[in-house]
Amino acid sequence: MSGVLVLMEQRGGAWNRMSFEALAAGQQLAAKLGLECSAAVAGDGVDALVKELAGKKLTKVFVIQHTLLKNYTPDGYVAALEQLVKKAAPAYVLLPHTYQVRDFAPALATRFRQVLISDVVAIHDGPVFVRQLLQGKLNADYKQAGAGPCFVSIQAGTFRAEDVEVGTAPVEDFAPQIDAVQIRSKPGEPFREAAQTVDLSAAPVIVSVGRGIGEQENIALVQELASALGAELAASRPICDNGWLPMERQVGSSGQTVSPKLYLAVGISGAIQHLVGMKGSKTVVAINKDENAPIFEVADYGIVGDLFEVVPELTKAVRAAKGQ
Amino acid sequence: MKILVAVKQVPERDAPISVAADGKWIDESSLSYTINEPDAYALEEALQLKEKNGGEVVVMCAGPERVTSTLREALAKGADRAIHIETNDLGQRDMLGIAQVLADAAKAESPDLILTGLQSDDLGLGQTGVVMAELLGIPHATIIMQVEVTDGGVKVKRELEDGWFQHVEMPLPALLTIQSGGNKLRYATLMGIKKAKTKETKTVQAAAVGAAPTITLERVYLPEKQKQTEMLTGTPAEMAAKLVEKLKSEVRVI
Ligand SMILES: Cc1cc2nc3c(=O)[nH]c(=O)nc-3n(C[C@H](O)[C@H](O)[C@H](O)COP(=O)(O)OP(=O)(O)OC[C@H]3O[C@@H](n4cnc5c(N)ncnc54)[C@H](O)[C@@H]3O)c2cc1C
Ligand SMILES: Nc1ncnc2c1ncn2[C@@H]1O[C@H](COP(=O)(O)O)[C@@H](O)[C@H]1O
């Protein structure tokens, strides 16, 4: 058993860009351990993607083509990838931590009696894999204990796609044995809910509210601050889950991705699924009563305090500065 | 239809967290606990499915004695029965070990549908449900917002990234991992709390720790900062004034 194998993700012939972050992770891990790095892409009609992948510094590019892999199903992917991992026998299997990977990779690892080390935010010498606990409040170091391929999924933004090294890689076709009866679920086409009327991605200033607000009526407090600043109002997921604000105002992995000049987070803890949606902001300000809240790890300016005391003062000060 | 819901007990969100003396887990001595948030939505989905289609809702939780409070709360909300899988050594089992314990208990019940949360707030693995399905040999789908019972199966609404969704159909028995926000959560009524006292909670012992764990947690610690954060201090009014100054001169949005 040797080498690093990176499982790339595509849908309908287009990459999930996080695949290249996982590829960068794979190349760097392989270089550190003195191992070879290969990559694989599964699907149907992925020739253009294979060509792109063959231009990277890899020992081999595996192409898993099968008509039953045209649309993603966990059963199809687990069956095909189990066969590939058996054949390639890598020491490490790296994947991007996408929704699709969440759906099949734990089952794939189970086929090898292994546990996927999921949502990894750093890889240190050892190798030691770092992942977050308690929604980012703590980090934890994990190590593989037994033998067998070590499955690792990489969190968004941990490695940079630009760091993928170029080269030329030989392409090898891999034909898995899959039978239609093995595929028990029937996937439908992706769809969006009713058209979005709020485009947060264009807003230069965003004030975003989280669960720290406590109750629906209190949102008015943050709305006033947003109005004073001429900002759009956004929210973390629990606020939209509760129906306190419409889902189209949700920022994060399952909501909108924003990159304003100013993102002011009020009573938001800073879970990774929220951070991926706003990390690109030019300036981040956080107001939170917990000095250890993970949001402060990405904030330029921080205020530790009770939002119910700070926000009204801030609204007043902004109005005064603007001569309102 | 018999629905089994796996609920996990996790530290309360606002609980102050400190690292335990051995550096391998958190100090549990002063923690208070609650139901894992997505699991509350899984329970709600199960209760609504029962209201529409009839049947039975059974909740199960693996953990020490303290987890029975979470099971009681689920009974008060309307679950029919509870199973406490008693174990004091969850920390010594890796995720595969925990999923095996849950799958063993599920097998004994042979439910039509198993619901789990998509992810636990403490370990955040996002895997236990998928691995249970694999161990039980039943189909699964993850990050589910809605469940509809069809002829011979279920049709579910699965969340994809960036506000996209997808429907997936599959036969029963099946396992679904439930995302938050699909339904409005109910509160336990006084009546429900009273009734819960008459409902059955079965205690089963988890099988002894089997295979050695395939991965080990070596150390937990506070994360390093990625950015230099300038902390503004003072009274609320002073902090507000300092921030407005920054917004004017540095960020230039005023
Ligand atoms: C697959 C998946 C997708 C997800 N997608 C998203 C997404 O798109 N967007 C998203 O936001 N989340 C998403 N989540 C959820 C995410 O993991 C977190 O649960 C969520 O972001 C937490 O929201 P929050 O910070 O508002 O709440 P909490 O984590 O509960 O934080 C509340 C914060 O408020 C602070 N606070 C409380 N009271 C006060 C006060 N009086 N004054 C000041 N501060 C106070 C607390 O210290 C705490 O830090 C997703 C999760 C999963 C698993
Ligand atoms: N000890 C447990 N008892 C009952 N259910 C659990 C337990 N651990 C995990 N689960 C279930 O598995 C889901 C995912 O957990 P995790 O894989 O740890 O993120 C949770 O939301 C629960 O539904």
Report low-confidence residues of chain A grouped into runs of 5 or more.
none
Ligand roster: flavin-adenine dinucleotide, adenosine monophosphate
Please report which band the strand proportion of chain B falls in: under 5%, 5-15%, 15-25%, 25-35%, 35-45% or over 45%. Answer: 25-35%
Structural class of chain B: alpha/beta
**How is the quaternary structure best described?**
heterodimer
Largest contact between protein chains? A-B, 96 and 82 residues
* SSE series of chain A: EEEHEHEHEHEEEEEEEEHEHEHEEH
Radius of gyration of chain B: 21 Å
Q: Give the amount of beta strand of chain A, in percent.
A: 25-35%
Q: How far is it from the N-terminal to the C-terminal residue of chain A, by CA?
A: 69 Å
Set down the secondary structure blueprint.
The complex is a heterodimer of chains A (324) and B (254).
Chain A: E1 4-8, E2 10-11, E3 14-15, H1 18-33, E4 37-43, H2 47-53, E5 60-65, H3 74-88, E6 92-96, H4 99-111, E7 117-124, E8 128-133, E9 138-144, E10 150-154, E11 171-174, E12 186-187, E13 191-192, E14 205-209, H5 219-229, E15 232-235, H6 237-241, E16 262-266, H7 272-278, E17 283-288, E18 301-304, H8 307-322
Helix pairs in contact in A: 3-4, 5-8
Chain B: E1 2-6, E2 9-11, E3 33-35, H1 37-53, E4 56-63, H2 68-77, E5 81-86, H3 95-109, E6 113-117, H4 128-136, E7 140-150, E8 153-159, E9 164-171, E10 174-178, H5 190-196, E11 200-205, E12 215-221, E13 230-232, H6 236-249
Parallel strand pairs in B: 1-4, 1-6, 4-5, 5-11, 6-10, 7-10
Antiparallel strand pairs in B: 2-3, 7-8, 8-9
Helix pairs in contact in B: 2-5, 3-4
Verbal overview:
The complex is a heterodimer of chains A (324) and B (254). With 324 residues, chain A is an alpha/beta fold. In chain A, 28% of the residues lie in helices and 26% in strands. In chain A, a hairpin with a 3-residue loop joins strand 7 and strand 8. The model of chain A has no long low-confidence stretch (mean pLDDT 96). Chain B is an alpha/beta fold. In chain B, the strands form two sheets. A nine-stranded mixed β-sheet of chain B has the order 9-8-7-10-6-1-4-5-11, sandwiched between helices. Chain B has a two-stranded antiparallel ribbon with strand order 2-3. Classes of the chains: A alpha/beta (324), B alpha/beta (254). The structure holds flavin-adenine dinucleotide (FAD) and adenosine monophosphate. Flavin-adenine dinucleotide sits between chains A (135, 210-212, 236-238, 250-255, 267-269, 271, 273-274, 277, 287-290, 293, 306-308) and B (13, 118-119, 143). Adenosine monophosphate binds at residues 6-8, 36, 38-39, 61-63, 98, 102, 116-117, 119-120, 123-129 of chain B.
